[in-house]
Please model this.
Amino acid sequence: MGLVYQYFFKEKQILTKEEMKDSVNICVANLPDLIIDYPKGKEYACLIIDKSVQFDIISKDEGEKYMMHIDALDS
Model:
């Protein structure tokens, strides 16, 4: 995950902020199905949200809303 955020997004600027935000949205939207097959799916999604806030891809408020949504999902 660090490679994507630090290298591709920040250093090389291969991915735009909008592309990164879209990927966060897709991750969270598909999470209910993913956690069925991937027991650590919620944990990975939380890491994605944390990194997205850290790299200013989403705001802290958006991150908190995503986390509340993730926490509400059944594992």
Summary: The chain is about 75% helix and 0% strand.
